[in-house]
Amino acid sequence: MAAKTLKYGGNTLAFILVVFGIVALINFLSSRRFIRADLTADKRYTISQSTKNVLDRLDDIVTIDVYFSRQPPRVAQIRQSVRDMLEEYRAFSKKLEINFIDPSSDDEAQKQKLRFMGIPEIQVNVIEKDKAELANVYMGIAILYEDKKEVLPVVQTTNNLEYDLTSAILKVTSKEVKTVGFLSGHDEIDVSDQAFGPLRQELNRQYEVRKVPIDGGKAIDADVATLIIAGPKKELTEREKYEIDQFIMRGGRVCFLIDPILIQYEGLNVSPLQTGLNDLLEHYGVKLNDNLVLDVSMGQLTYSQGFMTVSTSYAYFIKLMKQYQYRTGETSDGLSQDSIITSQLESLMLPWAGSIEILPQGDSAIETIALAKTSRGGWTAQSPYNINPTNRQFQPPASVQQVHTVAASLSGVFKSFYAGKAIPPAETTEPEEGMTAQPDEEERTTKTESEATQIVVVGNSQFLQQGRRDGQLFFLNTVDWLTLGEELINIRSHGATERPLKEISESEKFFLKFISIAGVPILVVAFGLVRFILRRRAKRMVEAYGSVS
């Protein structure tokens, strides 16, 4: 018996030692190479491949100093989330030096240093032990590289932290800051206005942003990487179009946001808008159609009527979806999955947009992608337009329902619209009395073929004025793709999802409603009947066997 006990004890000890050895080996290997499983659909808890690429290219140490208070608990929770993300950054690069600094001391010199860095002391509400108090805390991050510095003054959430960190690292490690120019002089959208503050702030994270006037025959500055033509309301002159054309020929990138109509909001008076850009864009491969697009996939319009605020479905606010679900079970893409600009967006709403047509390119090597298309229930309206939301005639005739393209990208080598043509003269003004005339402009040579470059055309600029997150993401993705390539797009689009319920038929709705209301009672009754039948059968068997005995 003793020998048997000893044998079993030895087997148990050996089993424990084997398990311990396996656990130790797994821990040793995991310290060298970690594996994580992110089961969310958009991988929101995993740093993106773009971040990994940026970290992999670091050629010197980047220091990240985190100034976070340890208390109160709500701040401590955010601090831990920041630490978790930075630990993942550290796992992908040995050239990151991450320091967590507790600035909670009363050292006035340290507080002055943080104020000088741009990290403020902020107040947060603390509710604890049935009383509310104000606490002074720090929640800032500084990214340092050589003599350059970027600061995230207040980090109150980690929702966009990866984009903020990676863009800051990219900015301090880049040799030059690229310039994004907004065409001015034709009543275009002015991002310097207060209404565009959030958009301007996002652009300033990575670029130098400035206005670009092209009147007087002035060429677009060579340091402008991307030109944004955002909703011009005046017709461009031939010389101005020439300067845009030559900017493209020099390899510049251009985003055309062209509205089909001019709206006077008082009285909702609408008139077709002529920008003079149609022939230029047709030459590059995109035709602007003179129409307004409507769609059965529509957004909501909120407006005031008397003393009431009314919200209604509005077919002129087309809601472009990543994928349209039809009652027949068929699907179609609304936002292109072939372009990084739109592949991670779930939806995009464009108000009062015009359709565009991608023209055949012949033997040209230009690659074109329809970035955004309506559902099969889209249709168009021609001038004169009635966009009044009280007009209920929004049901499309079945015969004209079809897909309409509203945004497209073009990539490749373009031919100049002005090849073989005389350079359009610059507009000059008569000199005032006592002033000398302007000197003759220097001789110019027309460049007839571009370097490899990109153009984006959208039949709408109004979406920038709506302040919606989806429109802002689409625009920022477009600017990033034109200016930087695919560097930051899939980081910004993390978590930017809108997933509406699939549209179902009336019979399916009735079935689901019936199951929700009557399903549970039916299951309870069925369970009771089965249990009653089984018990009755068991009772009969007992009685039958009892009578035999």
Write a brief structural summary.
By secondary structure, the chain is an alpha+beta fold.
Descriptive report:
The chain is an alpha+beta fold. The protein has four domains: 1-35; 49-165, 3-Layer(aba) Sandwich (Glutaredoxin), CATH 3.40.30; 178-419 and 447-492, Rossmann fold; 512-549. Helix content is 31%, strand content 25%. It contains eleven helices and 24 strands. A seven-stranded mixed sheet has the order 8-7-9-10-24-23-21, with helices on both faces. The longest helix has 43 residues, at 506-548. The two termini are 47 Å apart.
Number of strands: 24
How many structural domains in the coordinates? 4
Q: Please give the count of helices.
A: 11
What structural class do helix, strand and pairing data support?
Answer: alpha+beta
Largest sheet: 7 strands, mixed
Question: Level of helix content?
Answer: 25-40%
CA(first)-CA(last) distance:
47 Å
User: How are the strands of the largest sheet arranged?
Assistant: 8-7-9-10-24-23-21
**Which CATH architecture of the largest domain is right?**
3-Layer(aba) Sandwich
Estimate the mean pLDDT confidence.
83
Alpha-carbon Rg, integer: 32 Å
Poorly predicted ranges: 434-440
Q: Which fold name corresponds to the CATH topology of the largest domain?
A: Rossmann fold
3D shape: globular
Strand content: 25-35%
The first-level CATH class name of the largest domain: Alpha Beta
